[in-house]
UniProtKB/TrEMBL annotation:
It catalyses: tRNA(Met) + L-methionine + ATP = L-methionyl-tRNA(Met) + AMP + diphosphate. Residues 203-430 form the Methionyl/Leucyl tRNA synthetase domain. PANTHER family: METHIONINE--TRNA LIGASE, MITOCHONDRIAL, METHIONYL-TRNA SYNTHETASE. Pfam families: Anticodon_3, tRNA-synt_1g. Residues 585-613 are annotated as: Disordered. Belongs to the class-I aminoacyl-tRNA synthetase family. The lineage of its organism: Eukaryota, Viridiplantae, Streptophyta, Embryophyta, Tracheophyta. One of its GO terms (biological process) is methionyl-tRNA aminoacylation. One of its GO terms (cellular component) is mitochondrion. Keywords: Aminoacyl-tRNA synthetase, ATP-binding, Ligase, Nucleotide-binding, Protein biosynthesis. This is methionine--tRNA ligase. Residues 448-584 form the Methionyl-tRNA synthetase anticodon-binding domain. GO terms for molecular function: ATP binding; methionine-tRNA ligase activity. HAMAP family: Met_tRNA_synth_type2.
Amino acid sequence: MAVARMNMNCSIQSSLSCILKPSSFFNFRTTHFRNRLYFPQNNFIAPKRSLLCTCSSNTNAFQTGEKAEPFVITTPLYYVNAPPHMGSAYTTIAADAIARFQRLLGKRVIFITGTDEHGEKIATAASAGGSSPREHCDVISQAYKMLWKDLDIAYDKFIRTTDPKHEAIVEEFYSRVLANDDIYRADYEGLYCVNCEEYKDEKELLENNCCPTHLKPCVPRKEDNYFFALSKYQKSLEEILAQNPDFVQPSYRLNEVQSWIKSGLRDFSISRAAVDWGIPVPNDNKQTIYVWFDALLGYISALLEDKDQPNLQSAVSSGWPASLHLIGKDILRFHAVYWPAMLMSAGLSIPKRVFGHGFLTKDGMKMGKSLGNTIEPNELVHKFGVDAIRYFFLREVEFGNDGDYSEDRFINIVNAHLANTIGNLLNRTLGLLKKNCQSTLVVDSTIAAEGKEFKDTVEKLVEKARIHYENLALSSACEAVLEIGNAGNLYMDKHQPWSLFKQGGDASEAAAKDLVIILETMRIIAIALSPVAPSLCRRIHAQLGYSEDQFDNLNWSETKWGGLKGGQVMAEPKPVFARIEQLKENENGGAEAPKKVVKKKEKKKQVQGVIEA
Ligand code: MSP
């Protein structure tokens, strides 16, 4: 028996399937995927699309046009038991950077995020706050949307699992799995972690049956539930992973997934008898569908257009399978094991890639709502501005690994990289151009760089950044762009155009060319760093005399040297990133906060200073 202490107490629910089965199911495959990998026999999946992961490693192609396969990227759908914190913001910032990079490549991107609103812990949080679950969900879901706006998150779809269209998709999906004989009814007794919304294996628990993630004791539960026959998909999953080692990334997480599967997959319960706040099980409204069997479907229902009928056929044809699920490592099992098996059961393609990143930690512990050790993203935005936050977390935490937050480190990094290496370089170059060339470029950047190695250096670094973005090595991508800035600073220091201008004649001409070279470098940085720090890059680009529209329509191919032309007039030099100053203890009159201020600005205006400088 695949499920621990489980007793069959009812005939298999699939006997209901003939009652439930909608006519569209008549074409539907009902065999299992035991020993082979399937190309489903129904016409539900586009004929050439395999169930298998077909991870396309060549994302270098510049695809355009409506017909091109979209790049569909998802964040997890966040639980609305509490407002968002920096941990939830982290996944979304990373997803946004990847989505922006793919758009720069010319891809049609569908960036999906949203909120996971059903289940016991949401209902409990709502009642603790004295509101109905629906009111509670409306408020918290809105808080997510507002934070995404503040963090420059350009998502395409925001799905709420309480959306009736989503509920229709979940019901249809459930019925498909049922029709495939993969749902049965049984008793279950085990230890449950409400925060994970998951039954736990005793051997994975800490002392006093505490959940290793939430450090809270799991509670004994006994329920009569519907189960999903996960164990039937053991062989298929093993084969998928063996044949598609890129399906789970980073590679060290693949080993983890493989060992879970190897240790034997157990069927899991997909309904709850004691939870009202959920989607009723089709044909048994005494039970609601388990939150994960509901929320994962959000990745598909999000694809529905407003005009679409809410059915799987429409949703899937708008872009399934997802190109990339971006998730934290704690929910890898759901995405890399449960979800592909569920999809196979329903005859749908599995996603192309699942990337499990690490945790933001505080004092070594996962930052989270349950442990109450979170950092308030809104506070950080107001204190330091959106670019600093996005840049710091993507640059400082190697994507995939855990990373600890420290305010001192935060300030040091963003000051050194964004204010000094990039902001200062631009500002002093534009200052010199204004003083000596009426803010006008004397020649094309291609001519200015003729015979200079510098151009090759920049081009090599941009290519390095592109490869890192492709591989989701976001920190290394930032590092490569920063190296371009460092190279620019070295060039300035070596050529000293300010003293060449003083010499006049040929020296002055050379100096004017040097400024063109540096500004071309800044133009390239403005494109290459735009996935990570879009507002900052917009300001840099505007300083180079470009319009908002030109920024919005940039393409990665424009990182090629040669964009700036002779005669082009630069904008008035204005700092693009204000340095963050740290007050010494005694400058604050002994008061505890605020300790950090942005130079020469009041606290409220600091934000403006940083964002709009
Ligand atoms: N609702 C589920 C996901 C369903 S997806 C169909 C869920 N929600 S969550 O709000 O608890 O977590 C959402 C994501 O935030 C997870 O990927 C989780 O790893 C991530 N993070 C939560 N705290 C985090 C950190 N401290 N650091 C980094 N990411 C963290 O799970």
